[in-house]
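[09:14] KT: can someone run the structure on this one? pasting the chain below
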Amino acid sequence: MNTKELIKTVNTLLAGDKGLLAMDESTATCNRRFEEAGIPQTIEYHRAYRELIVTTPGLGKCISGAILYDETIYQATKDGVLFVDILKQAGIIPGIKVDEGTTNLAGFHGEKITVGLDGLQQRLAKYYALGARFAKWRAVISISTVHPSMGCIEANMHALARYAAVCQEAGIVPVVEPEVLMDGPHNLKKCFDVTERVQHVLFDELFALNVNLQALILKPNMVLPGLSSSRQADIDTVAEATVTCLLQTVPAAVPGIAFLSGGQSPEMAAAHLNAMHVKYKDKLPWALTFSFARAIQQPALELWKGKDENIEAAQKMLYKRACLDNAARRGEYRAEMEKEF
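[09:31] RB: done, C-alpha cells below
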C-alpha cells in the first residue's frame, strides 16, 4: 500500500470548493432515466450522454473527480478520445463504481446486501491500469417499521470495510457509501437514529479490518425525513441534525465527507450543504463536499433529450449546477442564484 499516494489523491479530490460527480449509473438506472426523458435506451445513447458530460467546458473548475461505470471507463468520444483521458486533461481524477448492485439478504426479509467482493482485487488492478485512482461501493439501508435490522447493518458495513481494505491495497482510494434511503414516511429523528447506528458500525468494521481512515472518503446521506413524511424539516434543522450526527460518529482522522443527494432536488441538496458550511464550517474536523449524481445531471438530461442541437444548452446547465454546488461548499449559495446563471 502506497499510503502517501493514497492521501495525495484524497487531498486532491477534496481541495478547494470542488466536489465529485457521480456519473456511475448502472445500465438499468440509466435506461430508466432515459425512458422518462424520451431518449432511446441504447449503448450509443449512453455513450453520447457521457460524452456530453465529460466534454462540458469548464467542468474541471468545479469537479475534482468523476465516478464512472464499468461501461463508461472503456468508452470514447465520437472522435476516439477515451473519456478517461478527457477527464485527466481537464484536471479531473477518474474513479470507478466497483460494487455489483444489491440482492436479497438471506434470512432478513425485505432487506438487501451489496455484492461484488468476488474478483474485486483483479478488477481493481484492471481499473488502476485504465487510470482510475478512486472507487465507490454503495450499501443500501432502508427504514420501515421493522427495518433496518442489526444483521443487515452489520453485513453491509462489513462488506464496505472489506471493499475499502482491498482498494487501499490496490492503490485506489475507497469512497465508502452507507446510504440510509429517503424512501418512506419516517421522521427526521428516525433517520438520525438509523444513520448514527450505521456510522458507528461502519467505523468499528473499518477499524477491525485495518483500513487507513486518512486514505478514504465517506459518502453518507444527509439526515432527512422520509420523502413521504408528513413532517418535513427546514434547511437549518437538516443541517444541524446532519452535522450533529456526523460529529458523534465520524473520527477526526477521516479527511473528508462527500454527501450523496439521495433523491433531493438539486436546489435542496445545494441549500442543505450550504447551511452546513454557514453554520459549522470552522468547527468541523473534516472537509464537507458533495458527490452528487441526479442533483447535478438531471436538469441537463432533461434539456438534452438525446438531441445534438440541445448539447450546448445541456452542458451549460450541467456547469451551472456544478458551480452552484461549489458556492454551497463555500457557504455562499443563495436561492436567487438559481436565476442568475
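[09:33] KT: thanks! The chain has a mean pLDDT of 96.
[09:34] RB: yep, looked fine to me
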